[in-house]
Automatic annotation (TrEMBL):
This is Phosphomannomutase. Belongs to the phosphohexose mutase family. Its cofactor is Mg(2+). Residues 16-132, 164-262, 268-376 form the Alpha-D-phosphohexomutase alpha/beta/alpha domain. It comes from the Bacteria. The gene is pmmA.
Length: 463
């Protein structure tokens, strides 16, 4: 590997985003660059007093080469590597927590096959974002990384899958639930690796769909936030007579739920039911929700005696808020769910287990059980491609101007969130931190209101 040479700030900032590293392999992302990031991260962690970094990767074709290059970069700074091989992102967080070491997960999550990247964390799965290390890494890469004059670190192989499964089963005890039929779409991602290891031996009959690990995603993209990628699971649930369907994204840190009728369950409703479970055990606890979850989430938290804290979108932000506020649980409408007993990190598997526990602990079908948590209609996240930051800002301001005489309140915690006067309708417009997109979320009491408001806003954004 070459020594880490100075790089242009433009090239570095093109792939190091607000809370992770992500880009197209061969266009900003390659082994040399990952070696340099490894060296920068290793230097930063060595200065923090860490002696070892855990490194895991998903099933993408480029992941083994990129993660190995990164590991060698870490070694170049005198820091050892515990190389985990194939892992889900939450499995990497588990390793960072129990081994008490920083971690690096090679994945592009839900992005198409051409992408790859890294999610970084400090010891105990504490997030590394722009304000907590990524800006420093950018500066190191631009300036050139000082070589370390001590001995190089070593690489040790370690498999933590069994320990990860046991840890989760101790957090949510499913042994006493009624038997359930569970359809699972792993989307050829890491869920196919972790689901059998975690859920085996429980009163669950698993119906697997696309469990073969394949980073080319031959069946559909591993992005269950997009409704078209849920279609196969929806049909599969009905065909198999399953009580519930679970859909994981590529690195299996997100989980989406489908009911027994094949209908998607809102991630906000999942936030609400998991929050309710926590508050039954820990009255008055603090629950985090991001700003695009349904209004029903803070309402249900308050009704159950909890304290709701609103935060911006993104795992590094919500993890920090979890720690700062002493929260027991946090949820995002993108189906990231965070748990205090899981190092304040997110785990799609743990969220799924909470839903299975709730469903299996009573006799109603999932559709009936979840009905009370669905109080509003929502658009889901709608993306518009706007290549430049200036274009995104201009369109956002145009939306505000268009609604100027109807705005009850507006805040800029993350993009703009607008409450409309005389109604319970609201919308959020924000720029993606990882892609050239402007994202829109709309919620209102009725589907007709959502449709009308969405069309009106998109007409301005896409003008």
């Amino acid at each position: 590997m070459p020594t880490a040479q100075p790089r242009s700030r433009e090239s570095v900032e093109a792939v190091i985003k607000a809370y992770d590293v992500r880009g197209i392999v061969g266009d900003g992302i390659d082994a040399d660059f990952m070696y340099d990031i490894g060296a920068a991260f290793g230097r930063l962690m060595r200065e923090d007093g860490s002696t070892v970094v855990a490194v895991g990767h998903d099933m993408r074709d480029s992941s083994p080469e990129l993660s190995t290059a990164f590991a060698k970069g870490v070694n170049s700074q005198g820091v050892n590597v515990t190389y985990l091989g194939l892992t889900s992102t939450d499995e990497l967080y588990y390793a960072s927590g129990v081994l008490e070491c920083p971690g690096a997960m090679f994945t592009a999550s839900h992005n198409p096959a051409a992408y790859n990247g890294i999610k970084l964390c400090r010891s105990g799965a504490r997030p590394v974002g722009q304000d907590s290390g990524l800006a420093r890494i950018i500066d190191e890469l631009v300036a050139g990384i000082e070589p370390f004059d001590g001995p190089a670190g070593t690489i040790e192989q370690k498999d933590v899958l069994e320990g990860y499964g046991q840890y989760l089963r101790e957090l949510v005890d499913l042994r006493g639930i009624r038997p359930l039929k569970v359809a699972v779409d792993a989307a050829n991602g890491m869920g196919g690796h972790t689901v059998p290891a975690v859920l085996a031996g429980l009163p669950l009959e698993i119906f697997p769909l696309y469990f073969e690990l394949d980073g080319s995603f031959p069946n559909h993209e591993a992005n269950p936030l997009d409704p078209k990628n849920l279609v196969d699971l929806q049909k599969f649930v009905v065909e198999t007579g399953a009580d519930i369907g679970l859909a994981f994204d590529g690195d299996a840190d997100r989980c989406f739920v489908v009911d027994e009728k094949g209908q998607p369950v809102s991630p906000s409703a999942i936030c609400a039911i998991v929050a309710e479970r926590y508050l039954a055990q820990k009255p008055g606890a603090t629950i985090i929700h991001n700003l695009i979850t349904s209004k029903s989430v803070p309402e249900i938290i308050a009704e159950n005696g909890g304290r709701a804290v609103r935060t911006r979108v993104g795992h590094s932000f919500i993890k920090k808020t979890m720690a700062d506020e002493g929260a027991v649980f946090g949820g995002e409408h993108s189906a990231h769910y965070y748990f205090t007993e899981f190092f304040n990190a997110d785990s799609g598997m743990l969220a799924a287990m909470h839903v299975l526990a709730a469903l299996g602990g009573q006799e109603k079908p999932l559709s009936e059980m979840m009905a009370e948590y669905n109080r509003y209609e929502a658009s889901g996240e709608i993306n518009s491609t706007l290549a430049s930051k200036q274009a995104q800002e201009d369109r956002t301001e145009a939306v505000l101007a268009h609604f100027a005489d109807r705005i009850e309140s507006v805040d800029r915690l993350d993009g703009v969130t607008v409450e409309l006067r005389g109604t319970k309708a609201w919308f959020n417009v924000r720029a993606s931190n990882t892609e050239p997109l402007l994202r829109l979320n709309v919620e209102a009491p009725t589907a007709a209101e959502v449709d009308d408001l969405t069309a009106e806003i998109l007409a301005v954004i896409r003008a």
